[in-house]
Each structure stands twice: as C-alpha cells, then as structure tokens.
Amino acid sequence: MEHPADFAKGLSIGIIMDGNGRWAQKRGLPRTAGHTRGAQVFQDIADYCDELGVASVYFYAFSTENWKRPAEEVGAIMKLFGEYLIKAFDYKKRNNRIVFLGDRTALEPRYQKLMDEIEQGTAHKTGMVLNIAVNYGGRQEILRAAKSLAAEAAAGKLDPESIDEELFASRMYTAGQKDPDLILRPSGEKRLSNFMLWQAAYAELVEMDVLWPDFTREDLDAAIAEFNRRSRRFGGV
Ligand code: FPP
Questions:
Q1: What percentage of residues in the chain have a pLDDT greater than 90?
Q2: Cα–Cα distance, 185 to 211 (Å, whole number)
Q3: Neighbours of 204 (CB within 10 A)
Q4: Phi-psi bin for 95: left (phi > 0), alpha (psi -120 to 50), beta?
Q5: Distance in Å, CA 135 to ligand 1 centroid
Q6: What is the DSSP code (8-state) at residue 199?
Q7: Residue 31 CA: which ligand 1 atom is closest?
Q8: Strand pairing of 97-101 and 12-16?
Q9: What mean pLDDT is predicted for residues 86-110?
Q10: Would residue 18 show up in a list of annotated catalytic residues for this protein?
Q11: Taking a C-beta distance cutoff of 8 angstroms, is the pair 138, 107 a contact?
Q12: Which of 22, 31, 35 for a ligand 1 pocket mutation test, highest count of atoms within 8 Å of Cβ?
C-alpha cells in the first residue's frame, strides 16, 4: 500500500508552529514550557521532512509582531533559537542547506554571526533546504523587495517596466527557492499571520487541530495526505 509520505518527495512545505502557549496553559505550565517542547518538535519534524525527501521546508519561528510579547517570553524563545544555532553546526555534517528568513539586524550580534556562518557553511549542500523565519514578516519582506527595486530604478539602473514576478521574487528572502506547495497550520487557526504572503499565492492551506508541541510525524503524514487529496489548478480548469 502506498504511504502518504511516498508523495512527500520534492514537496515544499511551510509550517506555522502555533499553539505552544495553549499547550503549556492546559498543563498549568508557563508558556515558555510550550516553546521548549515546540523547539524539540521543530527539530524532529525537520529531520522527518529530510528523511521523506522534502525539497524545502519553511518554519515560522518568530514574527515581526512577536516582539510585543512579554520580555520574558521573547527572551525564552530567543534563548531556544540560540541553543538551536549552536546545535545547527552539526548540520554541516549533513546534506541540508540552512537559510534564515527575516530581518536579522534586530537580533543579538553573536546570533547574527552564527546565522551567517551556518548559511555560508551549508550553502553548497544539495539536500533539503531548511528555512527558519526569525523576525520575519511577509509584508516587510515585500516592502524590502519593493524598496530595493525602487532604489535601482531611481538610480537609473532599472527600467520599472522590466519588473516582473521573477525579478520581484529574486529580491525576497527566499530568492531562488520553490514556493511552498502547502502551508500547514496546527492549533486550529485558519490564518497566514503575515507568513510568506508573496510565496503563498498558490499554496494549499492545511489547518490541523493539534497544538504544535503535540505535533507528530503521523500528523505530517496526515497533512501530506490531505494535500494530495486536493486538486491544484493554478487558476486553470
Ligand atoms: C506560536 O505559539 C509559537 C511561537 C511564537 C514561537 C515558536 C518558537 C519555537 C517553536 C521555538 C524556537 C524556535 C526554533 C527554531 C528553535 P503561541 O505561543 O502563539 O501559542 P498560542 O497561540 O497557544 O499562545
């Protein structure tokens, strides 16, 4: 019998890791405990995507809006991210390219340095691309692309008429990468929440009732099976 995961090869998957706070609250734990568990699930699901032959995966770890959370919670998420960055050096031994999406200039300089090193150290890898969005916002990403093109046009280096989708996409954090085929949102919410607004144009949205810290490899299989049941027409018939 075919396994849903047989269809995972070559797919590009976006994942909005949601529900960490609710998972912790349900257990009478501080919200940060949900993020700790969420970070472990992130690593396991990233490994599973790699095992399945997924082409690229995009994890939404921290949005440009998440700074509004209490300082303690922001600090805890950043600490988990920092711990991950140290571990990510192991990925140099693996065949994954790691890319960080978002405005990293707001992050601690030592994190920025690690992020640059990890990206450079894995740039030549040919396996799955593991994208992690940190201080990322879809609107901000579009504005950044627009500003870079406008600056070139103003300098007389670019004819505004020559701006097409391909050129615009080349100014995104995801330059050169595949758009997500499906975007998965656990925790029952049905929103994109400023995630990959440009790249999501034809993505299938799959929402699931499980909270991210409870998310399992079987849940990913189920999401891929749901994606395969849908017929994608890209505006055609
Ligand atoms: C959303 O759940 C989750 C976040 C804002 C943080 C996600 C961060 C991690 C999983 C850990 C750090 C990341 C890496 C890459 C190591 P929520 O807090 O909004 O949940 P709620 O809606 O139940 O409150």
A1: 90
A2: 9
A3: 18
A4: alpha
A5: 12
A6: T
A7: 18
A8: unpaired
A9: 92
A10: yes
A11: no
A12: 35
Report H helices in the chain.
20-26, 31-52, 71-87, 109-122, 138-154, 165-169, 217-229
Domain ranges of the chain: 11-139+180-229
Please provide the distance, in angstroms rounded to a whole number, between the alpha carbons at the two ends of the chain: 30
Confidence category of residue 1, pLDDT binned at 50, 70, 90: low
Single-letter amino acid, residue 103: D
135 SS3 class: strand
Q: What is the dihedral of CA 211, 29, 80, 48, to 10 degrees?
A: -30
Q: Which of 66, 103, 194, 214 is catalytic?
A: 66
Q: List pLDDT tens digits, range 148-207.
A: 999 999 999 999 999 999 999 999 999 999 999 999 999 999 999 999 999 999 999 999
Pocket of ligand 1 (CB under 6 A): 17-22, 35, 38-39, 42, 61-62, 66, 77, 80-81, 84, 132
Tokens of 207: 């929402």
Global pTM?
0.95
Residue 66 a catalytic site member: yes
- Other residues' Cβ atoms within 10 Å of the Cβ of residue 177: 19
Atom of ligand 1 nearest to the CA of 81: 16
Superfamily of domain 11-139+180-229: Decaprenyl diphosphate synthase-like (3.40.1180.10)
